[in-house]
Amino acid sequence: MSKRVAVLTSGGDAPGMNACIRGVILTCEQRGYTLFGYKHGYNGLLQQEYIPLYSSNTHNLNQQGGTILHSARCLEFKETESAILAAKNLKALEIDTLIVIGGDGSFRGATHLSHYWNGQILGLPGTIDNDISGTDATIGYYTAIDTAVSSIDKVRDTADAFERIFLVEVMGRHAGFLALSAAVASAADYVILPELFTTESEMLANICHQIEQRRKLKGTVSFIIVVAENVWPGGLNKLADSLTKRANAEVRPVILGHVQRGGSPVSQDRILANTLAHYAVNLVGEPTTNVMIGMVNGNPVEVPLSVTHTPGKPLLKSTLECMQSIMNKRYA
Ligand code: ADP
Fold first, then answer.
1. What is the pLDDT of residue 250?
2. Ligand 1: which of 108, 129, 130 to mutate, most ligand atoms within 8 Å of CB?
3. Which ligand 1 atom sits closest to the C-alpha of 103?
4. Ligand 1 probe mutation, 8, 9, 10, most atoms within 8 A of CB
5. Quick one: 74 and 38 in the same domain?
6. 244 and 275 co-located in one domain
7. Is 327 exposed, middle or buried (0-12, 13-18, 19+ CB in 10 A)?
8. Among residues 260, 295, 259, 274, which one has the least CA distance to residue 61?
9. Ligand 1 mean position to 12 CA, how many Å?
10. Residues 255 and 116 grouped into a single domain
11. Are residues 68 and 187 both part of a single domain?
């Protein structure tokens, strides 16, 4: 029997969510499934706000940033009554499979829903933070790295011109994936990550030592420090103040902010989005449920939703060692 599938995008938006929706639409159409898109994340499920999706909706979608279904945070979805209402609405629309494109919070929401709805639930990892366990990368991560790197390159031009110290804050929520990758790719001089954070005084001493060593070798020079968001106690301005006093230099803080969420997805995100979407739709009607489709070593894998929000996904060891070696040995 032809299946009825629904898809939604939830939580922090990420470039490539549209490419993922496109992959879902096209594979559903190939298989003869009826597809609906719930709008505004879990809010759409609660308000029964949905649109039918057809291949005519996919024109230029692959390269478009954002999400045509819109995303949202829906705090009330944590309540039991909300999950019961969502289940009722899904049954009313006779949905067999719900596909959730989002981050670990969205997958917590999907798990919550699964206690009240016995349809099939499949997750697809969409977040710039790459902080989801069970997948090497998430949709939007590669684009966000490129966006951060192109901004840091520009900061470097002005930093060099004035021989200043710049702090550049990149997103990542509580994980350092984006900051680490952006730091390596932009040849930053230092990176501050939650995974490497020790104490304020120890880290300040280390940064000042690096700046001092470089000054001895080259005189007054620029120095770029990439800082993961939420890591420095008191925020970036506090770090800038402390460093201004300790390093006796002009320090400028730059918070990249939401630009990192926007833009046309790079090809890696488009490929990831389409591949995972295609794999997910091929699971429709199978007994597999409550899993996220991740990518490990270039192959799609099925990861229980409970695993996706296990904290402590490790940074890529080789990239971390590369950055640490640059930070600690370059001017030693
Ligand atoms: P992300 O999916 O990007 O991690 P959030 O953490 O904000 O983003 O989660 C997105 C949405 O998922 C929340 O606004 C809420 O609707 C839902 N959600 C998150 N955690 C839970 C939970 N424990 N129970 C039910 N719903 C949740």
1. 87
2. 108
3. 2
4. 10
5. yes
6. no
7. buried
8. 274
9. 9
10. no
11. no
d(CA 183, CA 188): 5
DSSP 117: -
Can you tell me the distance from the alpha carbon of 179 to that of 148, in angstroms, rounded to the nearest whole number? 9
37 is in which domain, residue-wise?
4-140+265-308
Same structural domain for residues 77 and 49? yes
> Whose Cα sits closest to atom 6 in ligand 1?
105
- Look up residue 139 and give its DSSP letter: B
Say yes or no: 66 and 200 in one domain.
Answer: no
> Which is catalytic among the residues 13, 129, 146, 269?
129
From first to last of its 332 residues, what are the pLDDT tens digits of the chain? 699 999 999 999 999 999 999 999 999 999 999 999 999 999 999 999 999 999 999 999 999 999 999 999 999 999 999 999 999 999 999 999 999 999 999 999 999 999 999 999 999 999 999 999 999 999 999 999 999 999 999 999 999 998 899 999 999 999 999 999 999 999 999 999 999 999 999 999 999 999 998 888 888 889 999 999 999 999 999 999 999 999 888 899 999 999 999 999 999 999 999 999 999 999 999 999 999 999 999 999 999 999 998 988 999 999 999 998 888 665 54
Tell me whether residue 153 is one of the annotated catalytic residues. Answer: no
Q: Round to whole Å and give the CA distance between 192 and 304.
A: 31
**Residue nearest ligand 1's atom 19 by CA:** 105
Q: How many domains does the chain have?
A: 2
Look-up of token digits 């060692």: 321
Residue 210 maps to which CATH number?
3.40.50.460
Which residue among 106, 171, 290 is best mutated to probe the pocket of ligand 1, counting the most ligand atoms within 8 A of its Cβ? Answer: 106
Ligand 1 in reach of 10 Cβ (< 6 A) = yes
Tokens 């005519």 — which residue?
A: 56
